Amino acid sequence: MVKCEYCGKEVVLPFRCPYCKKYFCYEHRLPENHNCEELRSRFYVPRLAPRTPTRTLTQASMVKPKFSDVFKMTSPTEIKHLAVGLAVFALIGFSMLVESIPIFLLRPDVLLVTLTGMLASFLIHELAHKLAAQRMGYWAEFRLSIPGLFMSLLSIILPIKIVAPGAVKVVGLRFSKEDVGKVALMGPLTNVVQAVIYIALRRFVAFGSFMSIALYVLAVLNLSLALFNLIPFGPLDGTKVFRWSKSVWFSILVSVLAVWLSLSTPF
């Protein structure tokens, strides 16, 4: 048996960190969960604090940004990764709409509105994670995942849609279970808010119209994203929220289901 380098727990099947090459238990297998020194030294660059020659991170150098500053804390790499992620999401959204609701092809304007809303659901979800982490003083940027990107591209032509081109990577000294949970919660929460907005907007359009169908699709999409991400399994947001607070996880789950039940069909 091998002892976890972080908590000392003995495990039969340890996980080896690809950055620091040390072994950890299941709970501390991720770099952010064992405060991986190697990951911080490679990728953390304080945006609002002076750089040091060794690029090491100290408690004093972690400057908590103002809300207006978090939009500046990005990089060309993140912008490229987000652009690719959005492009893949757009292709998946287009294929899903054309396959399930062919009538969208009759109204390109409504199709464009729907695709824009789909992209917003993905972008706002990821930015919510990023902004929440940065407000806590952590480094956070979106990065593509090669396996996730491959599965997402493959799902464009398959009936089963998988939208997982990447995720927001967070690194910091004090990345506690509570902080992990709060950052993870922000993504699904924004999807619920977007769904509520689309449901409210449906009251102002004609029942059964193309726009009513589009708003219905966007509401269902956001609720589906929230519900899927709340599953307490693997690297999904639900796992982190559930570990932090089961009551919070249950509350947001009930909220998603309640909003879904209030959603009427567009026909």
Give keywords.
mainly alpha; 2 domains; two-stranded antiparallel sheet; 8 helices; 52% helix; elongated
Question: Could you characterize the architecture of this molecule?
Answer:
The protein folds into two domains: 2-43, AN1-like Zinc finger (Zf-an1 domain); 70-261. Helix content is 52%, strand content 7%. The chain starts with a strand and ends in a 6-residue tail after the last helix. It is built from eight helices and six strands; from the N terminus they run E-E-E-E-H-H-H-E-H-E-H-H-H-H. The chain is elongated. Helix 3 packs antiparallel against helix 5 (177-201), helix 5 (177-201) runs parallel beside helix 8 and helix 7 crosses helix 8. The strands form three sheets. The chain has a two-stranded antiparallel ribbon. The protein has 267 residues and is mainly α. Mean pLDDT is 80; it is low at 43-63.
